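Box S2. Input/output pair 1.
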Amino acid sequence: MTEATLTWHRLPTRVLLLRVLEVIKSFIIPLVLLFVINNDWSTTFGIILRVGILLFLLLDVIQKFFGWRNFRYALDDKTMYIIDGNWIKKEKSLPLYKIQSVHSNSPFLYRLLSVVELTFDTNANSDDASFKLAGVFPNEAKRLEDILDQVRHRKTETDLPVEEETDTTSEPVAIEKPASRLLYAISTREIIIASLTSLSVFAIFPVASTVVSSIDDFINLDGTFDQVGEWVISASIIAIGVLVLTVLFLSVIIGMVINFLKYGNFQLERRGDRIRVEKGLLNRSAKEIPYEKIQAIRIKETFIRRWFNIVGVELVAAGTMDELKDESSTILPFVKRDKAMAVLNEHFNQFTWADTLHRLPKRSLWIKLMRISWFGLIISGVVLYFFRDYAWWLVLLWAIIIGGRLLSYMTTRYAQNGRFVELRTGAFNVHSFLTDKPRIEQVQVTQTPLQRRFDVCNVLFSTRGVLSNEMIEDIPKQEADAMLKWFSRYTVEEDMKTPG
């Protein structure tokens, strides 16, 4: 790269403060326990432990300093250049036209210091598929996003890669940022209902367990546990009941607070040719998915939320990097089914949902019930051999196993509708999956000896990009062969297109 002709930018000085605060935050529990609660320097082990913690803290701060000092970035009209590294400098460049989306993230500390973290995603399947600017001013973030919009606009207008342009002296065309269109915003009422119908009401237990475990590593809490156990044994039923209700009430409150912090001000928008999801109160994040990269739509229904007709919707996107995959793919975390379908039918009309789905034949139920449950057999053997007094719990275990198979038979549906295939699978938690033929990478049909006797089989669908597999089990062999034939034959010109 020609450094003399480029204008290089550093991250703001406050980013160094941010990184130091993050280091202190990661060491906060041992620092409080060793230097505040139990500040004992009388033993050799105590001195070595405390000095070691301080040395590790100092080394981490020095590393963050050199990482901030060495980091620089620059842009010309075609390429972004990065110089990075803590002890060893690394240089890399990335053509701007390869950047498919930009994700912004503003954790609480970032918002306090008025900086934004930007992640540039190329949607490639490699270690260099993305890179971050971990702390830039909002106006700089907007400038970078505008530059990328201009690159996308030029690429769309010319239908040629930016790197093939020959006129480097022409001025970049000033274009307006794509107008945002709000597709859905989650209300306070929806967050409250979602909190009450999810396992987040039990959030107090893992939180309390983590805190107690961290403290117990430095301070022995066995005596405290013994006192609590003695109180529970001697307390009245009313006192224990009040304690349980109090804990459950606190769990509900904590679950609601967590969901409000995570999904507050949730907005689903469309900006030009991409979907944008913004959410969060303390930690504000915004992530994008290009329309052309959408490979499939998945609708999720948990066991409890099915009673309230609440679903979650996520997109299967090609090439989405692992660290952003789960977050960026969820476009509707919890909404009523009719509202979710209205959004999908109106704004994702490149996918067509089937009017009716086929059920499994009755022989599929028999094969599900006859299939061996190794988990149930192993648990039953252990209980009968070591804990025979608790053998009656096995009735509940096998009731859950058999009930799950009955539910799986009742909920499983499938349909092949033109160039689309739609699957509905699951037992207690149900997933609906929709994609079309051009986006399918492969179709695989498998059949076990037991399935062969009942003339049923499994069909596995794999979509393009970051391979996403979806399987439907125990469908008639004739239907599976029809799906395989449907996928392997291209009779329409449009079927040959490979989106994304």
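Box S3. Input/output pair 2.
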Amino acid sequence: MQTTLIVLLAVAILAGMAYLHKKNWGFTKLVFLSLVVGIVFGVSIQLMFGAKSDIVKNSIDWISIVGDGYVSLLQMLVIPLIFVSLVGAFTQLKMTTKIRKIATSVLAILLGTTAVASFLGFSSVAIFNLGGAGFAKGMTASSTALSAIKDHQEQLKGLTLPQQISSFFPQNIFADFAGMRSTSTIAVVIFSIFVGIAFLQIKKEKAEVAVTFARGIQALRAIIMRIVKIVLELTPYGIFALIARTTATNSFATMSKLLIFIVAAYVAIIVMFIVHAVLLLINGINPITYFKKAWPVLVFAFTSRTSGGSLPLNVRTQRESMGVSDTIADFSASFGLTIGQNGCAGIYPSMVAAITAPLVGVNIFSWQFVLTLVVIDVISSFGVAGVGGGATFTTLMVLGALNLPVTVLGVLIAIDPIVDMARTALNVNDSMVAGVITAKRTGELDWNIFNNQKDDVNTEIE
């Protein structure tokens, strides 16, 4: 009976949001409302029944149909969107030289900010004095956590760091399109780049074939983008369900046990957001205007914990709300999904490594350790999966390269969802910052669109 009432209340809230949507409430307002209402709803049922109660579990199972269904629809679009976006970027390109400039700028920003993020992760551990046995004392890893780590370790078993990097390259592209490997996403990115380069070469030799291919990609891209448009209409409902589950099922006791780590991680992430703002400012871009426009994307990334699921909204916001050209928006969002994620490949692995190293007698305050950690973080950031668990996979690569144990990682998985929300938002923001700055540097930023104070991205179906 109580489960039914909770589910009916959630349905009523979703119906109320649908009514506001019909009354043309702004997209950003709806996203913010869904976030606040979801937090209040989730915290309330946890306070009434407890995070581990059957009532909460059964209620959230039903409510999660909306959240998980929405994330599944977005993840359905990730691989096709990467392919048509990257190949489409080549077919729309006017000058071959510009593609090199765009790719170089995007990669430099993604990797450069990852190096800074790695150092901030290490600094946060040092400032909060988290290094060593004192942090993990009295804590044990759950069987679920150990199982998750074991699954990731199996994929890395017996592989050196160079061999792990070699696994990024596609072998069976159809298997990678089906997402059969943890590195499938970057494999599709690499394949798409090869297709784009082949198109540019064919364009010089057989113009008519290139025109036919470009039209086919343009038609396919139009279909994919229309599906994106339809799915994005569901964003406020998905966010409500996702944040309600997070706040209802993560017990206050669990969070308080590792509160210092959570605070340290969030401090590092917030400082990295400030670094992004400074980068925008240095490049003559108003960070306040930028963050107003990026807000809906960051809220979704925060609640869904999937950079891949955020890809459609990321691309659309860059193009329609920030004035970034199609080519650059496609490149920055797609590259940022698999390369140089500031949260999952920069801050988090660095923090875990800095906490773990003293357990085996390593002096983390030597410049050799810090430099090695930053370099390995940047290298490992190639191929990070833009889905839940990507940070664990990357962190295992870093720990393996440094010959460090995984004990602390098993403990931290207990509160990983709390940290992962902010990590994912930072990952997505770093790809958007790369897109906007690159567009500014290459003269492909539409200032009229960027400075337009319109509330949000248009997601209405035409």
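Caption for Box S3: The longest helix spans residues 54-91. The two ends are 42 Å apart (CA to CA).
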